[in-house]
Amino acid sequence: MKKTKSFLLVSGVAIMVACTIVFIWLMMFMERKSEESIRDIGTIYMAEMNKHIQQKFLTLVYLRLSQVEGVVERTPASSVKYGPRMLKELRLNAEVRDFSYLGLYAQDGTAETVYGSPVSVANIEDFWTILKQEGKAVSYGATAEGVRLLILGVAASYPMPGGKKAEALVAGINVQELADALFVNDTNSLVFTRIVDREGQFVVRRQENGYSNYFQFIRETFSSMGHKTALHYLGEMHSAMDARTDYSSLVRTGGQFHHLYLSALPNTDWFLVSELPQGVLDETISRLSDTRTYATLAVAGIVLVLLTLMFIYYYLLSQAQLRRVSAARMEADRANHAKSEFLSNMSHDIRTPMNAVVGMTDIALANLSDVARTEDCLKKIKLSSKHLLGLINDVLDMSKIESGKLTLTMGQVSLRETMADLVNIMQPQIKAKQQRFDIFVSGVTAENVLCDSVRLNQILLNLLSNAVKFTPDGGEIDIFLSQENSPRGADFVRTHLRVKDTGIGMSEAFKAKIFESFSREDNERVYQTMGTGLGMAITKYLVDLMGGTIEVESTQGVGTEFHIVLDFKRMPEAGEMKLPDWNVLVVDDNKDLLQSAVSVLESLGVHAEAAEDGETAVRMMEARLGGDKEFDVVLLDWKMPGMDGLETARQIHERIRPDVPLCLISAYDWAPIEKQAREEGVSGFISKPLFKSALFYGLSRFAGPSVDEEMKTDPYLTPVRDLTGKRILLAEDNELNWEVASDILKDAGLEVEWAENGRVCVEKFQASEPGFYDAVLMDLRMPEMTGYEATRAIRSSSRPDKNVPIIAMTADAFAEDVQHCLACGMNAHTTKPINTAELFQLLRKYMG
User: How much of the chain is helix, strand and coil, in % rounded to 5?
Assistant: First the structure.
């Protein structure tokens, strides 16, 4: 029994001791494992946190660096000169991109502040070293006021005062902006994060702690743990920094345990340091030492809670990032969709003139025996081809506008011809919708002006196309052209262009943004109408480029009016235009046109009277019959309510005077009624708008010898081509282009020789007798030797005729192409497709 008791006692004691030992070991093991688990969890969390912040940091820095590079691309150093204009453009770029600082830096220490306050850059030698190696560099600095900035440098050779050249364009971003973007702005957050350099200086931090150096903060606040002191931590951190490896440790500061994690930021000499207070975990360790029973559950629960919290926190951060990525993707998709829609709409718009070209070609082929009809088709094919060429150029306009490279090509422009082209181009669309279209001219003193004809046509076609699209069938569209003295002086004329319609109008909200890219009114009617949303943005840019203004007035359900004001330089006009002392009757149902026509006719020296309808015109003719003031000429509008122009002409000839000249005036194509009009006694046709020159040339053929025969010839209708016998050397590598150009030139009486490329052109010129060729027409892009190289070869030769006129004839039609041609020695530039009138004008000018 005793032995049993003893055995039991000893066994019990042994078991108790064993249990105690096992319990103590288990406590120590659990405590150690708990501490290891906590450290591991902290390390994982901090590593992921630092990785996430690293990614955000790199994204922000690369984004900002790309913005600095964008400044260099938008304002290339090679294309600017030092001066207020360059500095103003750079400052504007800085303001648009929310830079706090922008400056030009030379490596000798010279720096010029373009925007913001002067900045002192830290580690300037390292900054220059990285910049030279990589073309861009990142550092930090501060203004004299103590505002800390993130410094971003990009290699750029901008001019500086004193003839110096900058080696870098340097931008500064407020560090607080970077901190707000990188770190959660929450004072209750458990994680404290900062960015330091190798010397411990703070680059970015979320919260101030009274220290300017992180290493100083460690030395003065970190407590010793075991054998580790603050100096041990500093040594380990320096070693990690030198090796650019991650460093993690549990530290004690301010009486609390913190998990410290350090990692290097790529492409910089900076390091991300995060601290996570371990207060909650430290309390858990204390509870584990007090109770073994709940240790596993407590640790498991706490770990689960922490993992859950970390997951939720990381999930929320990830979701926020995903939302930003999704928003960026949606914006990119929207831009891509807009561009795709733009290309689709451009395809539709390009097919419209192509349809006219193909259709009119078929009609011309079917009516070869009808010379007049064939000629009419060919004219319309030419106009549609011009319009098609303009559309193709429009596709390139947005990219040139966005890059700031769109320029004007100035030349003499006839406003009369411009308006006539508009009428011919817009007629099919207007006729299809049975709309009424008129152009009213008043006070025009300069029909010929200096401007970019392509861009002026583009502006007006954009406005008219919109007017046609958004005006219902049967609506009215009018253009009002008037002039007045320009504030720029007597050599200029202020020209007002108003495009008015009775369309659907637009809301006040849309009016405010109508000139923005891809802007369209948000209503069903607009969405049912094809359009790119770029036309008005391009129009506004072109008007601004011409130094003019554009305004819009619109009322929904009533209509819209665009008002453009441009100051054009006057160009030489034709000789004095005077008609005999006639009595002229003008018949039109539009009061504005009547008033304008009467005013213009009286300036031509005739006495003009007006009638607002056919019945009134017939009565006025009857009242003057047999008197001293019979009407010598009658101008009749074609389309009038009640008695139209044809019926009025018939009644005048049958009932009153069969001998009086009758001219039909209209903005519409009169080809369908020409035969009937001739049968009704109509003597001629005059196109609206009724410019002074149009009325003069239209009526002067009835004047007999009282008007000079040379003055009766309309220069816009009969180009002079008196070039018979002149020799042309044509350099062209495309056989079809050679055939087209050769036929055009030979039809004018010119002798033409073909050079298949630039080398052959030079060889033929050098093998000819001096003065054999009267001019050279030079393509630019040719194999073996380009047109530029061929021109230089001819100009540098020792021949007495090396200054022979050389005219570029090319599809390279931009302003910079023209300048390049002139710079290499060519006399002039004309484009393909060939503008026959322009080509012969140049040949006549340079060949006499």
Answer: 50, 20, 30
Task: Find out whether 149 and 100 touch, Cβ atoms under 8 Å.
Answer: yes
Higher pLDDT, 94 or 707: 94
* C-beta of residue 119 within 8 angstroms of C-beta of residue 46: no
Is residue 106 within 8 A of residue 128, CB to CB? The reply is: no
Mean pLDDT of the chain: 79
Beta strands in 385-505 (DSSP E): 411-414, 436-442, 448-451, 476-485, 492-501
Q: Is 149 helix (H, G, I), strand (E, B) or coil?
A: strand
Closest CA to 775 of 763, 765, 788: 765
Three-state DSSP class for residue 41: helix
Strand bridging mode 806-810 / 828-831: parallel
Measured at the CA of 332, the angle between CA 326 and CA 337, to 5 degrees, comes to 120
> With 90 as the cut, is the pLDDT of residue 791 above it?
yes
pTM of the model: 0.46
CA angle 596, 601, 603 (to 5 degrees): 100
Residue type, 331: E
Omega prior to 689 cis, within 30 of 0: yes
Q: What pLDDT sits at residue 402?
A: 62
Query: Alpha helix (H) ranges present in 75-135?
Result: 84-96, 124-134
Integer Cα distance of 620 and 618 in angstroms: 5
pLDDT in tens, 13-38: 555 555 566 556 666 666 666 666 66
DSSP 97: T
d(CA 282, CA 277): 9
How many Cβ atoms from other residues are within 10 Å of residue 724's Cβ?
9
**In whole angstroms, what is the distance from residue 487 CA to residue 494 CA?**
8
Q: Say how far residue 296 (Cα) sits from the centre of its chain.
A: 67
pLDDT of residue 446: 87
- Tokens 């040139």 correspond to 400
Report the 10 Å Cβ neighbour count for 42. Answer: 22
Residue 430 CB neighbour total at 10 angstroms = 20
Q: Supply 430's token pair.
A: 């207007």
**Model pLDDT, residue 501:** 92
Which residue's structure tokens are 């391009």?
Answer: 538
Check: CB of residue 830 under 8 Å from CB of residue 800.
Answer: no
Distance, in Å, from the CA atom of 51 to the CA atom of 53, rounded to the nearest integer, reads 5
Whether 621 contacts 653, CB under 8 Å: no
- Answer whether the bond into residue 833 is a cis peptide, omega within 30°: yes
pLDDT tens readout for residues 551-590: 999 888 899 999 999 999 988 876 677 888 888 889 988 8
β-sheet bridge partners, residue 197: 270
Question: What are the helix (H) ranges across 404-523?
Answer: 415-432, 453-469, 508-511
% of the chain exceeding 70 in pLDDT: 79
More confident residue, 761 or 535: 761
Three-state secondary structure of 216-243: HHHHHHEECECCECHHHHHHHHHHHHHH
Do residues 477 and 422 lie in contact, with contact meaning Cβ atoms separated by under 8 Å?
Answer: no
Say which residue the tokens 């380990």 belong to.
Answer: 236
∠ CA 710-383-779, nearest 5°, is 90
And the tokens for 768? 């000819």
Q: Are 699 and 721 in contact (CB under 8 A)?
A: no
* Cα(122)–Cα(126) distance, integer angstroms: 9
Alpha-carbon distance 475 to 503, whole Å?
7
Distances (CA, A) of 404 to 411, 518, 653: 22, 18, 61
Residue 661 has pLDDT above 50, yes or no: yes
The amino acid at residue 317 is L
Structure tokens of 765?
């010129």
* Helix H or strand E segment including 348: helix 295-366
The token duo for 504 is 């659907």
Which is more confidently placed, 770 or 197? 770
Place of tokens 């005013």: 599
